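Incident log, structure service

09:12 report received: a user says their structure output differs between two submissions of the same chain.
09:20 pulled the input from the user's history:
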Amino acid sequence: MTVSMVKALNDGLRQALSDDPHVLLMGEDIGRLGGVFRVTDGLRKEFGDLRVVDTPLGEAGIVGAAIGLAMRGYRPVCEIQFDGFVYPAVNQIITQLAKLRHRSAGRISLPVVIRIPYGGGIGSIEHHSESPETYFAHTAGLKVVTCATPNDAFHMIRQAVAEDDPVVFLEPKRHYWTKGEVDPASALPLEQAVVRRAGTDVTLIAYGPTVPVALEAADVAAEEGRSVEVVDLRSLSPWDVTTVRASVHRTGRAVVVHEAAFSHGFGAEVAARLQDEEFHFLEAPVVRVTGYDTPYPPSRLESDWLPGVDRVLNAIDRSLSY
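09:34 re-ran on a clean worker, output below:
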């Protein structure tokens, strides 16, 4: 079955609602409108307005209400309309949602999923094109995952809803309408990385919106006689060090690609971990290709701001020439 990522997410949420009457969706314009990106299209009509809930415009209230519902046995799935709108809810997410299991000595779990369309590439502006993953990946008590294919979108959203602890589910909005095969019987564990392309010269480590960029760069590099392996992290917290480590053992080189800013970005975590634990396997320092340390630019400049194929190829050259 070939579908878009939006359709895969819609199907995954429909299945989750059908499987468990305690699952409910909540967010701005997700019911009657079906969501800005139509991820929840048709679900209110199918499951009713008590399970697909249009909320007031107030992200802190959405997450706060979800925490209360989870404490009463529900499994809320919150939609944050755009990445940059999540910041009013960060206090609820970090102070309450991430902490309650630890604070209650394991007596209270909060099975809440927070869906966030994230990243740039759709001609929008700051507050609509941001990459907030590091804020959440840095917070103990949260799982942070991101899908890069329709197949992962379908399976990972269902797995996230089934988790007993909170999950921040990041959806690369520029790939919402990218189509791909969905196999209902094919699902990796939620926290497992995957090798999307095998290679022997250098490892590209990417996630979410930069996975297709890494794969395209690997194709171009192959035409130039370079064998590039591409690892899709899928989960940022926890992240699958084992799969990345095995890849770096094969290639001896690593390049991390993400849209978030360079300084303090997730690539810094990957680079530090590899250089701390795999130093003797590395033939070159870990290289990072990222967004810049600026607010997201006007849309006419975003193609220069976002890490593209040319910048990734330059990073591969830097690594191989070391």
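09:41 both user submissions now match this output. Likely a transient worker issue. Closing.
09:42 reviewer note: The chain has a mean pLDDT of 97. The first strand starts at residue 2 and ends at 4.
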